[in-house]
Amino acid sequence: MALRLMLKKLNTAQSVRAMSQLGDLGSGAGKGGGGGGAIRSAGGSFGKKEAANEEEYFYRQQKEQLEKLKGALHDEITFHEEQIKRHQDAINRFKDQIGNMNKQ
Known about the structure:
Helices cover 81% and strands 0% of the residues. The longest helix is centred in the last third of the chain and has 60 residues, at 44-103. By secondary structure, it is mainly α. The protein is rod-shaped.
């Protein structure tokens, strides 16, 4: 369940970032109106720097989310491997019980 939520958040973040890039980043207000703040709306080198900082922030955030997802998947794999081992031990134990019943 937690994995689904993490994947949904990751996909949503990617979609939002893709939709917001209608023109050149930091080049001023786009066709849709708002430009993301006073500095970005003004354009120029400050706008481009702010846009680059924003892109870097979202890149790091996405990278962090992927690392969390990988960790969660690793934990889930470990859990299921332990469950397989427990089930295999139980199967062997029951087979031994059946074998002992047949000997009697």
